[in-house]
Amino acid sequence: MTSMLPPTRDLPPGRHTQIRAELERAVSGRRRLSQLTVPILAAAAAVAVVAAGVVLLRPGPTEHVPAVHITTSPTSAPAVRDTFGLTPERIEAIEQGCATAENMSGKPTMYQFGREDAGPWALVYTDRAVVSCDLGRGGVEYYTFRPSEVFINWLPGHFSVDVVSSALGGDVTSSIPELAGAPGYRVVAGRVDSSVARITYRAEEGRTVEAKIVNGTYVARIAYPSNWGPGAQNVPMEVRAYDAAGNLLGTNAELAGTCYYAPDTKDVVHGEQGVSADRCKPATPWR
């Protein structure tokens, strides 16, 4: 797989802003899917512990004096970040480009990148927000919908649902010729703990796909034809998390009905705001 992206077409001044406004008006009449935002904590660094052995000294010229023996306890190996075959310069450009497109504050970090039927995309987090970013869609180099707020230090159990979004097929929005022929898509994304081995996503029309789990995050995307638009909802969307043995760890419906608080501050970081922490479950650190 090549990391080169298709060239971005030059657009007249102000056309990027016009495209964004027209797209948002095109979907403004549709009810956006619920988004569950959940915070997470960056992993703590491992500490090396050094234990010095005891030197035994015995009198007498013929006695051997053993050397000092020092042992160091093993440390946890740092997690290796998947870079998806991209250069550090390209990753930084994507991070800054996607964050700047939404005026996101804080340091952006790209946790996922892909190139499926609906085109190249990236998943970018800061410490308080997340955005799914299309790369080059409709001639816009970094196109995003509104970012979702997250408390990235904490997880509500084993996984979170941070992004739930969709894009109309390009032929549905005929007022935007740059999008002609572009596929539509649905996307869900979030974060996971180390016990999660598999995530499935069932869309409203009943189609089910498996998410890609990388760098402590997951993304599931479904591409649709260029004339697609979300229609009647047959069933509620569903996200299910499983461990390596196939045991169900939780669903998005369970997350929606439960609040979680940060153990260090007692602040509610997932679910209904304003409730007392004693009515919620403790959140767990992420990574």
Characterize the structure shown.
By secondary structure, the chain is mainly beta. It has a domain of 199 residues. It contains three helices and 20 strands. Strands 3, 4, 5, 6 and 7 form a five-stranded antiparallel sheet that branches. It has a four-stranded antiparallel sheet with strand order 9-10-14-13, with no helix packed on it. About 18% of the residues have low confidence. Keywords: Membrane, Transmembrane, Transmembrane helix.
Reported for the largest beta sheet, the result is:
5 strands, antiparallel
Shape, per Cα inertia axes: globular
What is the averaged pLDDT score? 79
Number of DSSP strands? 20
Separation of the first and last Cα atoms: 28 Å
Low-confidence stretches: 27-78
Q: Characterize the quaternary organization of these chains.
A: single chain
How many alpha or pi helices?
A: 3
How would you briefly describe this protein structure?
The protein is 11% helix and 30% strand. It is mainly β and 287 residues long.
Jot down its keywords.
287 residues; five-stranded antiparallel β-sheet; four-stranded antiparallel β-sheet; 20 strands; 11% helix; 30% strand; globular
Q: Strands, helices and their partners?
A:
Blueprint: H1 15-27, E1 50-52, E2 70-72, H2 88-101, E3 109-116, E4 119-125, E5 129-135, E6 142-144, E7 148-149, E8 154-155, E9 163-167, E10 184-191, E11 198-202, E12 208-210, E13 212-214, E14 217-224, E15 238-242, E16 248-251, H3 252-256, E17 260-261, E18 268-270, E19 281-282, E20 284-285
Parallel strand pairs: 17-19
Antiparallel strand pairs: 1-2, 3-4, 4-5, 5-6, 5-7, 8-20, 9-10, 10-14, 11-12, 11-15, 13-14, 15-16, 17-18
Transmembrane segments: 36-57
Keywords: Membrane, Transmembrane, Transmembrane helix
